């Protein structure tokens, strides 16, 4: 009743104030400065703050705006621009906002700085393959330093969508298939972008996206429905968002798609209920590109005003580019003045983000052109890109030590158009990356070649077309060489947004090229260039070695040379399984066991395929090394301090190498079926030949908690099995512990970090 009365009172005051003034509610929820602004803003100015306008989607970022656009800024008609860049042009824009608009509210400048700004790092799925939090944090720190030097305050990253279906092209943009790994990567990236203090001029606001289940569209088709169980949503897809929220992410973006019919941009239960209500997320929420207007296409809003009301009520603060909030919300508010409440909250959150970035105190802090000149593509940034790239590559196969190539490897025919394709190395979100900054795979292999290695090149075939006319020349070159480095896979525009594929084999031209090269009988080392796991059974069978190089960014070539010539031992690990065939996806190592577990050897009615083994071609966590590691016994104890596990790992090979020690959990008996294995910890260690180190894992009982309902996870009494090893399919030692019932937990189990120590 009270609510009703206040709604009427507000409607009356809205009319009394005239159409341009908006009485404020919620002023107490914000800082004095933000509250004061909220009191003074007109309705038009409030709606303007919710509007994010596009500076331009092309590579020539349109940061110098037209006079009309500048007038809009003077009127307070826009809160943020995306796809803009440049310390100097943005300084002028900011100056107009701060000096020539009535309230002097600064603008927010945003861009998708996803895997680098000018110094482009490996694509996120490759970054995930490092299993290294310091790499994730350091790369995003550098990205933030460069982006902020170019006038940017806000990135739409990290993308934390868990993805188990490689048909979905955006699998390239995230941390892979596992909620634990994904949650760790999300938190580390937020820390890197945002640094210690958002008010520093070299930090930018991070955005965890796309809340909540964008990575599981039906059929792998981008933008499609996520029709998933509540358990999967809370146990698999939401934990990385929780981890990002706990790490202090300043913003989140809602997904384009719907979950079981409820578009995420209008999902009040999930945004207001779970994200803000239960998790206490108090940052800013932005819709995805035009997604507010697209609520009409979803069929949940009849018109733009209704679409705006739905999104605002659900908890979306800023409208990316659809202009619904700025142009159409007024009609919705006149019909339902209670929306004024939501409006004030949204404006307050946007102003708070600006305040946290220090923009009210020093709006020009992000526009020091000298910093822009010195920081972009700085030498130490490139050096980190090279080091991270070496740790991103995953050695899938290495028969008879085909790699590394040492002195005396002779004539090496590097074959494939991707060997010289700089654009592809820049990957899916290249921000300000330029092809001329990239050292290509071929350039790297040539420059790094040791004595006695002669590098030759033929294009053979390009993944972008079906032209096979170059294959004959490539075959002739291969025949004249001692061995072949065959660079095949996908070009950059085969993965990424709206780049879903129904077929996970390599493009036809790449398969034809590979077949022809294998026919020569020469030793073949495959360098796989890809943004997604591909089905590569032929390569797996016929190649001597396969190095999955993903797309590596500006230092692709030198990093590849480091691995191929043995300067560095490969240490990347798959963050997602590679399938044998398209029909086997989506797949995960952590499926439930089934009442009729798959028995691949018996022709029985079990949970298997009749035409394929059910195992992946290369499993989650897989990645070979040039060295070997032995594992001691996994020692477990459980006491008041929690669950402690430790294992000795020894480098039994004859060279320095990194191992990624992986800890998996299995709850064999519970009130619901539990996954066959769940990653619960990992640690990358460097070991000299013969060196042994002990890795300790510390867990708490809440890490075994099972989702019961939103906000309640049950910690059951009973036995837990732990396995430690080199991949999800290469477990070396096991131990069990008994856990007492610990009641319930509110925290998603996979979002809790396992502390590790190395001795
Ligand atoms: C993507 C988002 C991105 C936005 C702005 C959308 O199409 O889905 O991930 O942040 O564009 O570029």
Q: What would the average pLDDT be, to the nearest integer?
A: 94
How is the quaternary structure best described?
single chain
Principal-axes shape call: globular
User: For the largest beta sheet, what order do the strands appear in spatially?
Assistant: 11-16-15-14-12-13
Descriptive notes:
By secondary structure, this protein is α/β, with parallel strands linked by helices. It is built from 23 helices and 28 strands. The protein has a six-stranded mixed sheet with strand order 11-16-15-14-12-13, with helices on both faces. Strand 14 (483-489), helix 21 and strand 15 (524-529) form a beta-alpha-beta unit. It is globular. The model is unreliable at 1-20 and 57-61 (pLDDT under 50). The site of beta-D-glucopyranose has 7 residues, from loops.
Provide keyphrases for this structure.
759 residues, alpha/beta, six-stranded mixed β-sheet, 31% helix, globular, binds beta-D-glucopyranose
Concise overview:
By secondary structure, this protein is of the alpha/beta class. Helix content is 31%, strand content 19%. The chain is globular.
């Amino acid at each position: 009743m009270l609510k009703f009365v206040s709604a009427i009172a507000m409607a009356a005051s809205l009319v009394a104030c005239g159409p341009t003034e908006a009485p404020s509610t919620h002023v107490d929820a914000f800082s004095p400065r933000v509250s004061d602004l909220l009191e003074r803003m007109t309705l038009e100015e409030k709606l303007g703050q919710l509007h994010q306008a596009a500076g331009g989607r092309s590579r020539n970022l349109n940061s110098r705006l037209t006079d009309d656009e500048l007038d809009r800024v003077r009127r307070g008609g826009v809160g943020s621009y995306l796809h803009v860049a440049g310390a100097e042009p943005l300084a002028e824009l900011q100056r107009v906002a701060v000096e020539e608009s009535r309230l002097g509210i600064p603008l927010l400048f945003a861009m998708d700085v996803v895997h680098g700004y000018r110094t482009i790092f490996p694509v996120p799925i490759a970054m995930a393959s490092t299993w290294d939090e310091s790499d994730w944090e350091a790369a995003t720190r550098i990205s933030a330093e460069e982006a902020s030097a170019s006038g940017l305050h806000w990135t739409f990253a990290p993308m934390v969508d868990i993805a188990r279906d490689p048909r979905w092209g955006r699998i390239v943009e995230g941390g892979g298939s596992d909620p634990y790994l994904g949650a760790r990567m999300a938190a580390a990236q937020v820390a890197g972008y945002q640094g210690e203090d958002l008010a520093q001029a070299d930090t930018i606001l991070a955005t965890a996206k796309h809340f909540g289940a964008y990575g599981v569209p039906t059929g792998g088709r981008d933008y499609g429905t996520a029709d998933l169980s509540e358990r999967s949503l809370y146990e698999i897809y939401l934990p990385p968002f929780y981890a990002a929220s706990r790490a202090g992410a300043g913003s989140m973006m809602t997904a384009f798609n719907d979950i079981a019919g409820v578009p995420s941009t209008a999902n009040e239960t999930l945004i207001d209920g779970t994200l803000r209500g239960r998790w206490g997320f108090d940052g800013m929420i932005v819709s995805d590109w035009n997604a507010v207007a697209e609520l009409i296409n979803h069929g949940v809003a009849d018109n733009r005003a209704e679409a705006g009301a739905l999104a605002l009520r659900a908890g979306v603060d800023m409208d990316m580019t659809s202009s619904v909030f700025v142009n159409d919300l007024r009609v919705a508010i006149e019909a339902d003045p209670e929306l004024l409440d939501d409006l004030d909250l949204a404006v307050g959150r946007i102003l708070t983000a600006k305040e946290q970035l220090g923009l009210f105190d020093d709006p020009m802090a992000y526009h020091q052109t000298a910093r822009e000149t010195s920081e972009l593509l700085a030498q130490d940034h490139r050096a980190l890109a090279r080091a991270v790239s070496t740790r991103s590559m995953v050695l899938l196969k290495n028969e008879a030590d085909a790699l590394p190539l040492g002195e005396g490897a002779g004539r090496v025919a590097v074959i494939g158009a991707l060997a010289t394709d700089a654009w592809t190395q820049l990957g899916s979100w290249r921000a300000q990356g330029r092809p001329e900054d990239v050292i290509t795979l071929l350039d790297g292999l040539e420059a790094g070649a040791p004595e006695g290695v002669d590098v030759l090149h033929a294009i053979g075939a390009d993944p972008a077309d079906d032209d096979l006319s170059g294959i004959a020349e490539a075959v002739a070159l291969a025949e004249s060489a001692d061995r072949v480095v065959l660079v095949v896979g996908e070009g950059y525009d085969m993965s990424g947004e709206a780049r879903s594929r129904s077929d996970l084999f390599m493009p036809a031209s790449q398969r034809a090229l590979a077949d022809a090269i294998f026919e020569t009988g020469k030793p073949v080392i495959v360098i796989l260039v890809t943004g997604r796991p591909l089905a590569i059974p032929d390569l797996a069978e016929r190649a001597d070695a396969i190095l999955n190089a993903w797309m590596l960014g500006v230092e692709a070539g030198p990093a590849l040379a480091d691995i191929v010539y043995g300067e560095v031992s490969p240490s990347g690990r798959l963050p997602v399984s590679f399938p044998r065939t398209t029909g086997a996806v989506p797949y995960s190592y952590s499926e439930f066991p089934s009442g009729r577990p798959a028995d691949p050897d018996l022709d029985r009615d079990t949970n298997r395929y009749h035409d394929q083994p059910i195992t992946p071609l290369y499993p989650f966590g897989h990645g070979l090394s040039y060295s070997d590691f032995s594992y001691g016994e996994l020692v477990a104890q459980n006491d008041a301090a929690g669950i402690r596990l430790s294992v000795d790992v020894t480098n039994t090979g004859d060279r320095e190498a990194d191992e990624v020690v992986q800890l998996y959990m299995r709850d064999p008996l519970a009130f619901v079926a539990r996954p066959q294995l769940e990653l619960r910890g990992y640690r990358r260690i460097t070991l000299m030949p013969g060196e042994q180190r002990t890795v300790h894992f510390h867990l708490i009982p809440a890490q075994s908690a099972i989702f019961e309902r939103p906000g309640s996870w049950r910690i059951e009494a009973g036995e837990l099995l732990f396995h430690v090893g080199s991949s999800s399919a290469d477990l070396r030692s096991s131990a069990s512990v008994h856990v007492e019932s610990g009641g319930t937990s509110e925290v998603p189990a996979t979002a809790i970090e396992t502390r590790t120590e190395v001795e």
